[in-house]
Amino acid sequence: MGKMGTLTLDRWGPFSPVHDSCASKGPWYYINTEGIIIEFETDEDAARSLMPPDLELVEPATAFVSIADNHWTTLGPYSEAYMGIMCKWQGEDCCYIPAVYTSGVASRVVAREIVGCGKKTAERIEVTQHEDGDIQAIMEIKNGDRAACAVMRPATHEPAEALGAHQSIPMIFLKTFPDSEGGDRPALAQLVSQPYPVHPHVDAQGRAMVYSGPGHLAFGWPSDLQLPIRGVASFKFSRYDSVLEYPKILKTYTAEEFEAAEAEASAGNIQAIRAIR
Questions:
Q1: Please, are residues 114 and 133 in contact by the beta-carbon 8 Å criterion?
Q2: Can you tell me the distance from the alpha carbon of 226 to that of 222, in angstroms, rounded to the nearest whole number?
Q3: What does DSSP say about strands 188-194 and 248-254: parallel, antiparallel, or unpaired?
Q4: What is the pLDDT along the chain (277 residues), one digit of tens a residue?
Q5: CB-based burial label for 257 (10 Å; 0-12, 13-18, 19+)
Q6: Residue 168 contacts by C-beta under 8 Å, 6 or more apart in sequence?
């Protein structure tokens, strides 16, 4: 008999590669994050088409885009841009995050392995304040494509509570485990709830660093951030800290459920074809 491996299970680390994990266990600390959050009304059908059937869309259909620079984190500095849809899980407010772009490496691996956040790489994500006071947030998948660009003027100071749902409600992600044998559907999937408490910085006068004002959001090259914009509700800029704790698994989808869904869909297609004939 050949000699077996000696990397016993009790020596495995929390992340890949298990012999030398790419990051430390959480919680993960974020200090001096700054960014823009744009909330807008969107198309109901477009929003629902991205949501798992266990989530209920908030009406009117509302989405947001956040572009932020994480200047210091225990996963290293990185920037990110993501889109969320306001929804409910069993009557509780939450936001479903179907799309995230990032410039970080460790954050991408940890986010995928822990919460199933399907992060993609963007070559440029920046938040900049210009000499005229305007704040510009850009996400480019490839340099120059202007996949998402937001500009706002921080005209009005707001209390911390003005961040509303973005300050307290959990983010929902769909974590998938691909079929290693080549199946068309995941071998397993989990709906995961990730808390993301936001604590705005406070200036020397005791005011939370939250500002609102007029702005503009435009999409250039197609990206996963895009949803139809029916009307912009608000632009907010904030500088804040946060601590990411481990998430909670809300539901697990099994291979048997995927097979049953496929069978039901096939039966429905057959009935539809017969009705046409």
A1: no
A2: 7
A3: antiparallel
A4: 789 999 999 999 888 888 988 778 889 999 999 999 999 999 999 999 999 999 999 999 999 999 999 999 999 999 999 999 999 999 999 999 999 999 978 888 888 888 888 889 999 999 999 999 999 999 999 999 999 999 999 999 999 999 888 878 999 999 998 888 888 888 889 999 999 899 999 999 999 999 999 999 999 999 999 999 999 889 999 999 999 999 999 999 988 888 888 888 877 665 554 454 4
A5: middle
A6: 197, 198
Amino acid making up residue 219: F
Instruction: Please give the single-letter amino acid code of residue 221.
Output: W
Buried b (16+ CB within 10 A) or exposed e, 206-230: eebbbbbbebebebbeebbbbbebb
How is residue 251 written in tokens?
């539901």
Of 176, 150, 177, residue with least CA distance to 83:
150
Which structure tokens are listed for 7?
């990397």
Quote the tokens at residue 61. Answer: 């259909």
Written as one letter, the residue type at 72 is W
Tokens of 243: 């601590």
Query: Tokens in use for 111?
Result: 């986010």
